[in-house]
Amino acid sequence: MKALKRIVAVGALALAATALVAGPASAHQPGAAKKAPLRAISAANLVNAAATQLSVTPEVLTTAIRDSANARVDALVAAKRLGAPAATRIKARIAASLPAAMRWSKAATVATNLNITVDALHTGFRAARKALATARIDAALAAGKITQAQADRLKARLAAAKLPGYKASWGWGFWTGGFRHLPHPKVKASR
Q1: Are 143 and 135 in contact (CB under 8 A)?
Q2: pLDDT in tens, 155-183
Q3: Distance (Å, rounded) from C-alpha 163 to C-alpha 147?
Q4: Cα–Cα–Cα angle for 90, 95, 99, rounded to 5 degrees
Protein backbone atom coordinates (compact mmCIF):
# COMPACT_ATOMS: atom_id res chain seq x y z
CA MET A 1 0.00 0.00 0.00
CA LYS A 2 2.88 2.32 0.80
CA ALA A 3 4.38 1.68 -2.63
CA LEU A 4 1.07 2.49 -4.32
CA LYS A 5 0.73 5.72 -2.31
CA ARG A 6 4.30 6.62 -3.25
CA ILE A 7 3.59 6.01 -6.95
CA VAL A 8 0.44 8.15 -6.79
CA ALA A 9 2.29 10.94 -4.96
CA VAL A 10 5.17 10.93 -7.44
CA GLY A 11 2.71 10.91 -10.35
CA ALA A 12 0.79 13.86 -8.91
CA LEU A 13 4.02 15.76 -8.33
CA ALA A 14 5.19 15.07 -11.89
CA LEU A 15 1.84 16.18 -13.29
CA ALA A 16 1.95 19.41 -11.27
CA ALA A 17 5.53 20.11 -12.37
CA THR A 18 4.59 19.51 -16.01
CA ALA A 19 1.63 21.87 -15.72
CA LEU A 20 3.80 24.56 -14.16
CA VAL A 21 6.55 24.26 -16.77
CA ALA A 22 4.58 23.45 -19.92
CA GLY A 23 1.53 25.60 -19.23
CA PRO A 24 3.20 29.03 -19.12
CA ALA A 25 5.70 28.10 -21.83
CA SER A 26 3.04 26.96 -24.29
CA ALA A 27 0.89 30.00 -23.58
CA HIS A 28 3.51 32.24 -25.20
CA GLN A 29 4.02 30.16 -28.32
CA PRO A 30 2.04 31.15 -31.38
CA GLY A 31 -0.43 28.45 -32.35
CA ALA A 32 0.04 26.60 -29.07
CA ALA A 33 -3.71 26.36 -28.51
CA LYS A 34 -4.13 24.57 -31.86
CA LYS A 35 -1.71 21.73 -31.06
CA ALA A 36 -3.37 18.58 -29.79
CA PRO A 37 -1.47 16.44 -27.30
CA LEU A 38 0.21 13.31 -28.60
CA ARG A 39 -2.22 10.47 -28.05
CA ALA A 40 -0.96 7.17 -26.80
CA ILE A 41 -1.19 4.20 -29.10
CA SER A 42 -3.88 1.85 -27.86
CA ALA A 43 -3.03 -1.59 -26.53
CA ALA A 44 -5.22 -3.09 -29.26
CA ASN A 45 -3.25 -1.33 -32.01
CA LEU A 46 0.03 -2.42 -30.41
CA VAL A 47 -1.13 -6.04 -30.15
CA ASN A 48 -2.39 -6.00 -33.76
CA ALA A 49 0.96 -4.67 -35.00
CA ALA A 50 2.90 -7.11 -32.82
CA ALA A 51 0.79 -10.01 -34.09
CA THR A 52 1.80 -9.09 -37.62
CA GLN A 53 5.48 -9.00 -36.59
CA LEU A 54 5.15 -12.37 -34.81
CA SER A 55 3.25 -13.99 -37.72
CA VAL A 56 0.20 -14.84 -35.63
CA THR A 57 -3.33 -13.48 -35.67
CA PRO A 58 -4.29 -10.73 -33.21
CA GLU A 59 -6.80 -13.14 -31.65
CA VAL A 60 -4.07 -15.73 -30.95
CA LEU A 61 -1.81 -13.10 -29.37
CA THR A 62 -4.66 -11.65 -27.30
CA THR A 63 -5.61 -15.11 -26.07
CA ALA A 64 -1.98 -15.84 -25.13
CA ILE A 65 -1.82 -12.58 -23.16
CA ARG A 66 -5.12 -13.20 -21.34
CA ASP A 67 -4.20 -16.83 -20.59
CA SER A 68 -0.88 -15.66 -19.11
CA ALA A 69 -2.62 -13.07 -16.95
CA ASN A 70 -5.17 -15.58 -15.68
CA ALA A 71 -2.43 -18.10 -14.94
CA ARG A 72 -0.62 -15.48 -12.88
CA VAL A 73 -3.75 -14.74 -10.88
CA ASP A 74 -4.32 -18.46 -10.34
CA ALA A 75 -0.73 -18.86 -9.11
CA LEU A 76 -1.21 -16.01 -6.63
CA VAL A 77 -4.40 -17.62 -5.32
CA ALA A 78 -2.64 -21.00 -5.00
CA ALA A 79 0.20 -19.34 -3.07
CA LYS A 80 -2.40 -17.72 -0.79
CA ARG A 81 -1.17 -14.26 -1.75
CA LEU A 82 -4.54 -13.33 -3.26
CA GLY A 83 -8.04 -14.14 -2.07
CA ALA A 84 -10.79 -15.61 -4.21
CA PRO A 85 -12.99 -12.45 -4.28
CA ALA A 86 -10.06 -10.31 -5.45
CA ALA A 87 -9.09 -12.94 -8.02
CA THR A 88 -12.62 -12.91 -9.43
CA ARG A 89 -12.56 -9.12 -9.78
CA ILE A 90 -9.11 -9.17 -11.39
CA LYS A 91 -10.10 -11.91 -13.85
CA ALA A 92 -13.19 -9.92 -14.85
CA ARG A 93 -10.95 -6.91 -15.48
CA ILE A 94 -8.53 -9.06 -17.50
CA ALA A 95 -11.41 -10.34 -19.64
CA ALA A 96 -12.73 -6.82 -20.24
CA SER A 97 -9.49 -4.89 -20.70
CA LEU A 98 -6.49 -5.74 -22.87
CA PRO A 99 -4.23 -3.23 -21.05
CA ALA A 100 -5.13 -4.91 -17.74
CA ALA A 101 -4.37 -8.31 -19.23
CA MET A 102 -0.99 -7.04 -20.44
CA ARG A 103 -0.17 -5.64 -16.98
CA TRP A 104 -1.02 -8.92 -15.25
CA SER A 105 0.64 -11.19 -17.82
CA LYS A 106 4.26 -12.30 -17.86
CA ALA A 107 6.39 -12.21 -20.99
CA ALA A 108 7.74 -15.72 -20.41
CA THR A 109 4.24 -17.20 -20.16
CA VAL A 110 3.00 -15.29 -23.21
CA ALA A 111 6.00 -16.54 -25.20
CA THR A 112 5.38 -20.10 -24.04
CA ASN A 113 1.70 -19.82 -25.03
CA LEU A 114 2.83 -18.73 -28.52
CA ASN A 115 5.57 -21.41 -28.76
CA ILE A 116 8.26 -18.77 -29.28
CA THR A 117 11.18 -17.52 -27.21
CA VAL A 118 10.95 -14.54 -24.90
CA ASP A 119 13.52 -12.75 -27.07
CA ALA A 120 11.34 -13.29 -30.14
CA LEU A 121 8.35 -11.86 -28.25
CA HIS A 122 10.33 -8.76 -27.23
CA THR A 123 11.72 -8.34 -30.75
CA GLY A 124 8.21 -8.54 -32.23
CA PHE A 125 6.87 -5.89 -29.86
CA ARG A 126 9.88 -3.62 -30.47
CA ALA A 127 9.35 -3.87 -34.22
CA ALA A 128 5.63 -3.17 -33.74
CA ARG A 129 6.34 -0.07 -31.65
CA LYS A 130 8.80 1.18 -34.26
CA ALA A 131 6.34 0.53 -37.11
CA LEU A 132 3.50 2.33 -35.32
CA ALA A 133 5.71 5.32 -34.45
CA THR A 134 7.01 5.52 -38.03
CA ALA A 135 3.44 5.41 -39.37
CA ARG A 136 2.45 8.27 -37.05
CA ILE A 137 5.42 10.34 -38.17
CA ASP A 138 4.55 9.70 -41.82
CA ALA A 139 0.88 10.60 -41.18
CA ALA A 140 1.88 13.86 -39.47
CA LEU A 141 4.16 14.70 -42.40
CA ALA A 142 1.43 13.92 -44.96
CA ALA A 143 -1.06 16.07 -43.02
CA GLY A 144 1.39 18.99 -42.99
CA LYS A 145 1.69 19.00 -39.20
CA ILE A 146 5.48 18.60 -39.34
CA THR A 147 8.13 19.40 -41.91
CA GLN A 148 10.32 16.89 -43.72
CA ALA A 149 13.28 17.98 -41.59
CA GLN A 150 11.28 17.36 -38.40
CA ALA A 151 10.17 13.96 -39.70
CA ASP A 152 13.78 13.06 -40.48
CA ARG A 153 14.90 14.08 -36.98
CA LEU A 154 12.08 12.09 -35.38
CA LYS A 155 12.91 9.02 -37.45
CA ALA A 156 16.60 9.35 -36.54
CA ARG A 157 15.68 9.52 -32.85
CA LEU A 158 13.39 6.54 -33.32
CA ALA A 159 16.15 4.53 -35.00
CA ALA A 160 18.54 5.33 -32.15
CA ALA A 161 16.01 4.69 -29.38
CA LYS A 162 16.11 1.53 -27.29
CA LEU A 163 12.45 0.56 -27.45
CA PRO A 164 10.88 -1.65 -24.80
CA GLY A 165 9.80 -5.14 -25.75
CA TYR A 166 6.59 -6.75 -24.58
CA LYS A 167 6.11 -4.78 -21.39
CA ALA A 168 6.44 -1.04 -21.30
CA SER A 169 9.19 0.72 -19.45
CA TRP A 170 9.84 4.18 -18.08
CA GLY A 171 11.82 6.94 -19.72
CA TRP A 172 11.35 6.65 -23.48
CA GLY A 173 10.81 10.11 -24.93
CA PHE A 174 7.75 9.59 -27.12
CA TRP A 175 5.52 8.22 -24.29
CA THR A 176 3.31 6.25 -26.64
CA GLY A 177 2.29 2.76 -27.47
CA GLY A 178 1.94 1.29 -24.10
CA PHE A 179 4.81 3.19 -22.65
CA ARG A 180 2.54 4.65 -20.02
CA HIS A 181 1.82 1.43 -18.13
CA LEU A 182 2.55 1.73 -14.44
CA PRO A 183 4.57 -0.97 -12.75
CA HIS A 184 2.24 -3.43 -11.14
CA PRO A 185 1.90 -2.87 -7.38
CA LYS A 186 2.84 -5.71 -5.10
CA VAL A 187 -0.12 -7.94 -4.51
CA LYS A 188 -1.12 -8.39 -0.88
CA ALA A 189 -3.21 -11.19 0.47
CA SER A 190 -6.90 -10.46 0.73
CA ARG A 191 -9.01 -12.86 2.75
Answers
A1: no
A2: 999 999 988 899 875 444 444 444 344 34
A3: 24
A4: 80
